[in-house]
Q: What sequence folds into this?
């Protein structure tokens, strides 16, 4: 299980004070943008702003996750969203066991709604993906638990099909790019990553370079223009179980 950043009481209230100060000097727009930042959230999370409003930063979802992939938003990423839950797939992936939702006492994570079983969508990072330059790497396609979510093009490079992908993070977890491309410090450490469907990065078609991914990964698009959720395929639904796309338990 990955390490969890502990949020001090002082740090939490300091972040709140800074946010209040930003509003006081005319920074309401900046606060709103930070609240809407498109982080990849755990199952059952709605919009970024609604998570920020409902979450009391108790960390019960972090403690409940058996895979160690729920982690708090760092203060450096957002003053307003600091301490609210986001997902990191470096050491694990989500099988929608829903233990984080069960543990949430405030409704920031909840059953029902389009986000219950849809975390985001994978995006290929072309200057980090080994298959983009070299032939032979098909790890993300081979390990993807949803048939049809990742296929190969005519050059054996991965192609993500958003209508099948639910952002479980398995592809990002198993991508070997970090070790195979250690010589290129400018490239992302994964050749495929999961982004929120509400992010500008999710609007890209095909592969994107690392710099474009970094600039668009958490930048939210206007409400109502998010990438469409998955509608096809058989997806993970808890340990050793599956479900059809769109199925709600």
A:
């Amino acid at each position: 299980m990955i390490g969890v950043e502990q949020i001090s009481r002082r740090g939490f209230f300091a972040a709140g004070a800074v946010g209040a100060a930003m509003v006081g000097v005319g920074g309401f727009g900046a606060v709103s943008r930070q609240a809407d930042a498109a982080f990849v959230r755990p199952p059952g999370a709605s919009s970024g702003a609604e998570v920020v409003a409902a979450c009391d930063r108790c960390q019960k979802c972090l403690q409940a996750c058996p895979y160690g992939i729920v982690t708090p938003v760092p203060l450096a990423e957002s003053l307003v969203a600091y301490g609210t839950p986001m997902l990191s797939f470096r050491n694990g992936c989500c099988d929608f066991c829903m233990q984080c939702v069960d543990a949430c006492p405030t409704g920031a994570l909840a059953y029902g709604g389009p986000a219950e079983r849809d975390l985001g969508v994978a995006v290929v990072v072309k200057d980090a993906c080994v298959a983009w330059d070299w032939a032979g790497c098909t790890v993300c396609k081979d390990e993807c638990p949803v048939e049809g979510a990742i296929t190969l093009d005519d050059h054996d490079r991965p192609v993500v099909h958003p209508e099948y992908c639910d952002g479980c993070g398995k592809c990002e977890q198993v991508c070997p790019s970090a070790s195979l491309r250690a010589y290129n410090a400018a490239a992302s450490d994964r050749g495929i990553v999961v982004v929120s469907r509400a992010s500008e990065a999710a609007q890209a078609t095909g592969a994107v370079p690392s710099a474009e991914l970094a600039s668009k990964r958490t930048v939210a698009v206007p409400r109502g223009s998010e990438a469409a959720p998955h509608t096809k395929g058989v997806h993970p639904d808890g340990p050793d179980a599956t479900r059809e796309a769109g199925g709600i338990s």
